[in-house]
């Protein structure tokens, strides 16, 4: 889908350019949008024809024209065509515009979701989820409304005046030209006020997204808010965001009152001008009474639809502001994909001089090098903040390495397609997220299309089958949002079952037992042992007891490899690993009241 990058200077350009930009979203449904808009134009023109016929009849009667059967039949036929056109073209316009708007919005949502799936994790972590939710909901709805109602209203505001102007031009061209002059004079005012609205509309959409983000924070953090009795404080942030949204909306309306009133005043100035001109020409005998009646009768019909463009202007600019926010997603840089993808020769992993920084100038990893042979277990340990989880994120290619390279089977990850890389890796995160659905659905995420037998076998391997069958609905039990209906250990085992079902040759564990109680830890350790069998396993360990039997241990400190080797070798060196191991042993023997007990005589 072709969406132009948002540019403030472009926003301040012509409204025609803005309409073209919005129209470019219609994609394969462009023909339906064009038809619907054109039908709305014809409906409005048919309405103008009915006004013109009515005024024509009144004018002829005012001149004393004899009512003949032929004249009456002609007037009736024209009126019938005008009214039939309004009904027919109105139905066709409504059908095409609304159907097209739903189809375009549906395609756009799917395109945005696909884009979000392909964007690097850095994009998602640097952006509040409220921004993304607003883009998928409020911003998308605004575009949908514009395509269904805004664009047709523009055609409607042009169609009726066009038909009336043509009739007026044929009746008395000097009056028609005088009536057109105020419209041309008011056009710059319309464009200027539209440009002012563009900036305010963008600010308003930003305030709306901020309010949505605060609302999500408030709802998701309800447990913390209640636990610390911060109900009032939690509400304050949301209220402040709503107040800002309200202030921006009021400011937008206040800033538009003067230009909108000025535009309307200039347009309506045509009425006294045309009345004066037509009246003078009638007095001097240049036009008959019937022509004067036609001119005066059609004046307000000519101007009223044009004034309705003021309402459409707000819809169009707000829709464009929504599109500008969506541009942040559609044009965020993707991880580069190779033109000729390479395939790995085996499943050995190698980090070669890897450096990485989330923020330029503040490196998280520096010159990290180590190898993970195929079907081996390598553990990564180190103090908090040393870059352990970042290594797994880089191997999963959630981010791109800044320096050096990571290879899989001798192939640089950047030479592989992201989907091919993802197919070779299964990840068990420390913080497990389950989708709102059934246990069956969440395990099946590991391999979509897997049958019930394979899913149950994966659950058995993850030591999860027994507790699942103890639930009221078994595998059809709904887990709630984020897996809220299950305990931490149960969620972790569902996550492991998902990884077992995927059956990837490389498994990444971001310490799956760090926050698990001892009763669940044994089951999870058994599940992890089954998951790691005949696979290349990289473990980020916080509990050192879980990795003492690893084939190789890499110790990180401050983003660099401080030491590496086996458990026994590292203990013998007496370095950082030995220090961490000593701290772990002392912590294992610690109990409440130890200091007090030792202090007693």
From TrEMBL:
Subcellular location: Cell membrane
Domain ABC transmembrane type-1, chain residue ranges per copy: 36-318
Keywords assigned by UniProt, alphabetized: ATP-binding, Membrane, Nucleotide-binding, Transmembrane, Transmembrane helix
Bilayer topology: Multi-pass membrane protein
ATP-binding listed as a keyword: yes
The keyword Membrane is annotated on this UniProt entry: yes
PANTHER family in UniProt: ABC TRANSPORTER, ATP-BINDING TRANSMEMBRANE PROTEIN, ATP-BINDING CASSETTE SUB-FAMILY B
Protein name as catalogued: ABC transporter
Protein's organism: Shinella yambaruensis
């Amino acid at each position: 889908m072709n969406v132009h990058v948002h540019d403030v200077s472009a926003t301040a350009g012509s409204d025609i350019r803005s309409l073209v930009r919005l129209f470019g979203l219609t994609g394969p449904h462009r023909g339906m949008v064009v038809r619907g808009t054109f039908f709305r134009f014809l409906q409005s023109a048919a309405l103008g024809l009915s006004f013109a016929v009515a005024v024509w009849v009144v004018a002829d009667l005012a001149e004393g024209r004899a009512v003949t059967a032929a004249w009456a039949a002609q007037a009736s036929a024209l009126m019938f065509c005008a009214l039939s056109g309004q009904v027919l073209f109105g139905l066709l316009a409504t059908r095409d515009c609304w159907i097209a708007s739903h189809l375009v919005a549906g395609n756009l949502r799917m395109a945005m979701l696909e884009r979000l799936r392909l964007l690097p994790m850095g994009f998602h972590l640097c952006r509040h989820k409220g921004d993304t939710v607003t883009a998928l909901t409020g911003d998308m709805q605004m575009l949908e409304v514009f395509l269904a109602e805004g664009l047709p209203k523009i055609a409607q505001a042009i169609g009726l005046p066009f038909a009336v102007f043509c009739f007026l031009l044929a009746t008395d061209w000097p009056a028609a030209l005088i009536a057109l002059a105020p419209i041309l004079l008011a056009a710059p005012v319309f464009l200027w006020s539209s440009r002012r609205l563009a900036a305010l509309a963008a600010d308003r959409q930003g305030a709306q997204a901020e309010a949505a983000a605060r609302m999500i924070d408030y709802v998701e953090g309800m447990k913390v808010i209640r636990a610390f009795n911060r109900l009032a404080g939690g509400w304050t942030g949301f209220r402040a965001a709503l107040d800002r949204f309200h202030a921006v909306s009021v400011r937008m309306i206040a800033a538009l009152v003067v230009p909108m009133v000025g535009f309307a005043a200039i347009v309506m100035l045509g009425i006294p001008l045309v009345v004066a001109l037509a009246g003078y020409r009638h007095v001097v005998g240049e036009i008959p009474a019937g022509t004067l009646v036609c001119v005066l009768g059609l004046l307000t019909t000519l101007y009223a639809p044009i004034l309705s463009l003021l309402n459409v202007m707000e819809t169009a600019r707000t829709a464009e502001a929504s599109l500008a926010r969506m541009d942040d997603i559609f044009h965020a840089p993707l991880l580069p994909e190779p033109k000729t993808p390479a395939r790995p020769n085996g499943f050995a992993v190698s980090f070669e001089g890897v450096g990485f920084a989330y923020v330029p100038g503040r490196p998280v990893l520096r010159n990290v090098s180590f190898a993970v042979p195929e079907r081996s277990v390598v553990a990564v340990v180190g103090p908090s903040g040393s870059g352990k989880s970042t290594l797994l994120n880089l191997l999963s290619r959630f981010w791109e390495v800044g320096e050096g390279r990571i290879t899989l089977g001798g192939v640089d990850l950047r030479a592989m397609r992201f989907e091919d890389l993802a197919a070779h890796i299964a990840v068990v995160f420390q913080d497990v997220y389950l989708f709102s659905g059934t246990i069956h659905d969440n395990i099946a995420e590991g391999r979509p299309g897997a049958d019930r037998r394979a899913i149950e076998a994966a659950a058995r391997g993850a030591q999860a089958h027994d507790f699942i069958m103890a639930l009221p609905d078994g595998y059809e039990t709904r887990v709630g949002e984020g897996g809220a209906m299950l305990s931490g250990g149960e969620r972790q085992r569902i996550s492991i079952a998902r990884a077992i079902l995927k059956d990837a040759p490389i498994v990444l564990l971001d310490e799956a037992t760090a926050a698990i109680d001892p009763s669940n830890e044994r089951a999870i350790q058994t599940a992890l042992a089954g998951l790691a069998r005949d696979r290349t396993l990289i473990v980020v360990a916080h509990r050192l007891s879980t990795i003492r039997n690893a084939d190789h241990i890499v110790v990180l400190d401050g983003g660099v490899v401080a030491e590496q080797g086996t458990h026994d070798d590292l203990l013998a060196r007496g370095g950082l690993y030995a220090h961490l191991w000593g701290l772990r042993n002392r912590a294992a023997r610690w109990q409440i009241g130890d200091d007090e007990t030792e202090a007693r005589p």
